[in-house]
Amino acid sequence: MSPVILAIESSCDETSASVIRHGKVLNNVVASQSIHHKYGGVVPELASRAHQRNIVEVVNDAMVSSGISKDELDAIAFTRGPGLMGALLVGVSFAKGMALALNKPLIEVNHMEAHILAHFIDEPRPAFPFLCLTVSGGHTQIVLVKDHLHMEVLGETQDDAVGEAFDKGAKILGLPYPGGPLIDRYAQLGNAEAYSFSETNMPGLNFSFSGIKTSLLYFLRDEKLKDAEFVDKNLHDICASFQKALIRMLLQKLTKASRETGIRQIAIAGGVAANSGLRKELGGLAQKHHWHVFIPDFQYCTDNAAMIAMAAHYKYLKGQFTDMGVAPLANMSIS
Predict the structure, then answer these.
(1) What's the pTM?
(2) Share above pLDDT 90 across residues of the chain, in percent, rounded to a whole number
(3) Nearest-angstrom CA–CA distance, 21 and 325
């Protein structure tokens, strides 16, 4: 049986809902939160309140635009974790209440697994097994994907995620939040060989990005002592050099994982997958190593409910439901 599922995503600062029918995503409604911009990062309490304001309208829009009635739903899916506890609680509570009112089963979804399964929303789709470099604001992982519901983390960051490194680097440069996309934009106009920054080489396939952030901080401190306008004069080159170093750290580990496993089906997922520099460098490695590379459409790279719906679709087919006692799990890991 091909199910009809309503999915809800509320792990951070995007309230999203999506309806999937017969394995095809019908829509992807997203309400973003601009209130965090003036604080230079996501404020958890404000995110939770915004989810409360947005969730009814977002879910209603998803249902109406799908043309599906509530009675036609076979299940309600939601993000259980990882994410901000208060934000998750809004989505989990809403899904439980709706499922109880409609007498529908519940499906819990791991946000990071959903990022990986976003590759199955549209063609082309990777073949199993494949490696997925998952790069977002909160996570950086290399995952061995054996099938839709069986995954193994081969390596992950031991401190900052690469998305955090981009945003914190941007903050050090005085750029507004979210700064990662701005670094990408300015990097396209700069010389990536202009400066070098300290890169941490962790054992195995793990990552560390706190050192390069500190390296940028000290570099700018020293240069601004010589010239107070150093950043303004050299912003493009700084961004290009900083971005190149971050991407090199990511792709060195991904190349090592491919070599060790012998897998050439390579996917990237998460918000940083939209970075133009990463996509360009990955394309070059694909030619060099004969990789088959897969990147979801941009709307499915950032946090969204369509990927939650796709993950829920496969869990429904395997009969993997949860009960009303389920609670958010902020530090939920890939099983």
Answers:
(1) 0.95
(2) 89
(3) 27
Distances (CA, A) of 222 to 53, 185, 195, 276, 333: 46, 25, 13, 30, 40
Minimal CA–CA distance to 29: which of 269, 303, 314?
Answer: 303
In degrees rounded to 5, what are phi and psi of residue 9?
A: -125, 125
Contact 99, 76 (CB under 8 A): yes
**Distance of alpha carbon 175 from alpha carbon 40, whole angstroms:** 9
Distance CA 128, CA 119 (A): 12
Q: What is the CATH number of the domain that holds 93?
A: 3.30.420.40
pLDDT for the residue numbered 39: 67
Q: How far apart are CA 281 and CA 278, in angstroms?
A: 5
For residue 331, tell me if it sits in a domain: no
Is 35 found in the same domain as 54?
yes
pLDDT value at 129 more than 80: yes
Q: Is 58 inside a domain boundary?
A: yes
107 and 16 housed in the same domain: yes
Identify whether 330 is part of a domain: no
Please tell me whether residues 192 and 309 are part of one structural domain: no
Mean pLDDT of 45-71: 95
What's the start-to-end Cα distance of the chain, in Å? 26
Q: How confident is the model at residue 335 (pLDDT cuts 50, 70, 90)?
A: confident
Q: Which sign, positive or negative, has the C-alpha torsion 136, 253, 80, 120?
A: positive
Over residues 168-181, the mean pLDDT reads 92
64, 204: one domain: no
Distances (CA, A) of 99 to 71, 116, 169, 305: 11, 26, 43, 17
Other C-beta atoms within 10 Å of 93: how many? 16
Structural domain of 16: 4-117+300-317
In the predicted model, what is the mean pLDDT of the chain? 95
Number of structural domains, the chain?
A: 2
- Torsions phi, psi of 158, nearest 5? -100, 0
241 with 199: CB under 8 angstroms? no
